[in-house]
Amino acid sequence: MNDVSSGPRYQQLARQLKSAIEQGELQPGKRLPASRVYAQELGVSRATVEAAYGELVAQGWLERRGQAGTFVSEGVVPGPAAAEPVWYGGEQPEPQPFQMGLPALDLFPRALWARVMGRRLRTQTRFDLALGDVCGEMALRTAIVEYLRFSRSIECLPEQVFITTGFAASMTLILQTLGKPGDKIWLEDPGFPLIRPLIARQGITFCPVPVDDEGLCVEEGIKSAPEARFALLTPAHQSPLGVALSLPRRHQLLDWAAHQDAWVIEDDYDSEFRYQGKPLPPVKSLDAPQRVIYAGTFSKAMFPALRTAWLVVPLPQVAAFREQASLAACGVPLLWQMTLADFMREGHFWRHLKKMRQHYAQRRKWLEQALTEQGFDVKPQQGGIQLVMAVEGDDREMARRGREARLAVQALSDWRMNSFGEKGLLMSFTNISSLAMAQQQVRMLVNIIGK
Ligand SMILES: Cc1ncc(COP(=O)(O)O)c(C=O)c1O
């Protein structure tokens, strides 16, 4: 939160001054008191005032004019700027209502994480200062293997696990290791749009494949592009529709991949969050033909700023992946990797997931209730961290108006390539912490898009 009274004293003072500038109480060109005088006035040290001034000079709010003193910069625009969300001292802004792709930031056990990291930091040896394994630290890879065995029924060796800085880095590693320009890739339609430019950069051609109630229509893929080299999909909860890939389709997909020597890329980014029924096993757990590359991430289960994801690659491909990985050694700092390994090994990760499953089920219910109270039609989904609300009319225009009002809803149409179908708005519920909050946000949405 943007609490002016937290953090070191100089930062508190910097925030107070910045807020006064934003509110127009301190006008551009106004001279500030000399630091010695101001320090006496406030009962703080002169160094505190100097540090606060220094920070605001660095941010452009104040300027020094030599002997003449410190002044509010001429360039700042007071008044209207105060209506913008207030960013203090390098802190991130709060999530926008409905913002997708974020876990519940308020529920992550930050103090526990800091303790685990602090312990690692204090017990570092000089060897921890050197470059680690280019594929990621063994301790973390081993912890991931244990977790996958226990939670996802995937049996693999630590050597098969590659640590990356996120899904984009994972995809780059896969395509650079196994792909070549001109190869084709099946993509779910509708599907996650942000990954498409990266795939295009590698010279790989998209083959959109429609999605129905059983997930990706494998038969359609085989009909339109049987020779594709890759199929990228989200079998646990299709992103964004939330359906699970049915068991017959999982087998059909694996048969196709084995027959064609194609690669299935299983993006399992949010599979932990399922609220009803028993999850189907991941495609990777059925992968006798060794054609599946499994991509996981800690962005949802932990937090996105961790920038840590992983791949599980078939054993015969380990050497090729290792060679490619060595060209750009693992980008996740060793300290973070080791902290994460401790966090997992000590059971904190598992406990956190268990807690989050309950919270997300509750938060989803709150948003669903608030939307249905207003007469909206929410698509049933068994899991995931986002939901789809059907709308009539131009969903792109609705999403645009929402964005203008800082409501981070997305249009289902913007996730489509060739497919036609229902219009909808995609939204996340992860950061909605009460029914009242859900109702308030939905009322804001109604004001913007109507009913
Ligand atoms: C479909 C999908 N896959 C993967 C990811 C994970 O991305 P990253 O690990 O880079 O945070 C996301 C994040 O929003 C996603 O929506």
Brief rundown of the structure:
This protein is α/β, with parallel strands linked by helices and 451 residues long. The protein has helices at 9-22, 35-42, 46-59, 110-122, 138-152, 167-178, 196-201, 218-224, 247-260, 318-325, 334-345, 348-373, 395-404, 435-449, and strands at 62-64, 70-72, 161-164, 184-189, 205-212, 215-216, 230-233, 263-267, 292-297, 309-312, 377-378, 386-391, 410-411, 423-428.
CATH topology of the largest domain: Aspartate Aminotransferase, domain 2
Contiguous runs where pLDDT drops below 50 for at least 5 residues: 80-91
Residue fraction in strands: 5-15%
Share of helical residues? 25-40%
Please provide the ordered H/E string of secondary-structure elements: HHHEEHHEHEHEEHEHEEEHHHEEHEEH
Q: What strand line-up does the widest sheet have?
A: 3-10-9-8-7-4-5-6
Mean pLDDT: 90
Structural description of this entry:
The chain has 451 residues and is of the alpha/beta class. It folds into three domains: 9-83, Orthogonal Bundle (Arc Repressor Mutant, subunit A), CATH 1.10.10.10; 110-349, Aspartate Aminotransferase, domain 2 (3-Layer(aba) Sandwich), CATH 3.40.640.10; 353-449, Alpha-Beta Complex (Aspartate Aminotransferase, domain 1). The chain is 39% helix and 14% strand. The chain is built from 14 helices and 14 strands. It has helices at residues 9-22, 35-42, 46-59, 110-122, 138-152, 167-178, 196-201, 218-224, 247-260, 318-325, 334-345, 348-373, 395-404, 435-449, and strands at residues 62-64, 70-72, 161-164, 184-189, 205-212, 215-216, 230-233, 263-267, 292-297, 309-312, 377-378, 386-391, 410-411, 423-428. The chain has an eight-stranded mixed beta sheet, with helices on both faces. A four-stranded antiparallel beta sheet has the order 11-12-14-13, with helices on one face. α6 (167-178) crosses α10 (318-325). The longest helix has 26 residues, at 348-373.
